[in-house]
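Example record

One chain of 266 residues, shown exactly as stored in the release files.
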Amino acid sequence: MYDCYNRRINYLRVSVTDRCNFRCTYCMPEEGITLLSHDDILSFDEIVEVVSYGVSQGITKVRITGGEPLVRKGIVTLVEMIANIEGIRDLSMTTNGRLLAELAVPLKKAGLQRVNISLDTLNPMKFRQITRVGELADVLKGIEAARQAGLAPIKLNCVIKSSSLEEDAQQVAHFAKEHNLEVRFIHEMNLEKGYFTRVEGGDGGNCATCNRLRLTANGLLKPCLFSDIAFNVRELGTEKAYELALNKKPRSGHTNSTGSFYNIGG
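Predicted structure tokens for this chain:
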């Protein structure tokens, strides 16, 4: 499956909810958000249909995102349904880790292969300030549970202001090395201003080699995070939405004035 710039598209990011149990300062406004209605959110069967068609066309890598995917009721069942789609070689999840202590083992048994866990600081007070409601100890327990369950390689997503040499980033890097984890430094982005850079330690942010599409929780298939272009799989049908997303995928990202990180999945 190729877009009009001959980039091979084999990666689908699937947002399963816009809800989250944290309120991170760079992701959600302090006053909260207007949540999608339950009727607007894709059912498990609808998600599986979109993923299955994508896999039949060349998708081999699927990442489950949110919001916070682990707050979606029945998420272990959904993971199992997706894991049973023949042709997926890499099934992963991005999570804040808050619920991993109780869900890591069931997720592994359901077929999840690995996780990326958000960790911006190892200072409990700073962690609370960033997340507004989170406790660092809960996430550290989640990381250990994921390690024990074999959800590897575990990658830590660390958002930075300007440099990976910042104190908090260096502490996260040291923690990752000490516990045999990988770390990815992500510069804080701005959708409306079109500000993004390459991810340090990962391949995100490189438009020339972008291989991904995104499915939002309410059924919009998006060819680019930094674009307002989106195609509704319910209105258009799965096959047509994919066709349009591939044909309209821009050469590079610009700005996004209609979406947010919490409902697209970053």
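Notes: The two ends are 22 Å apart (CA to CA).
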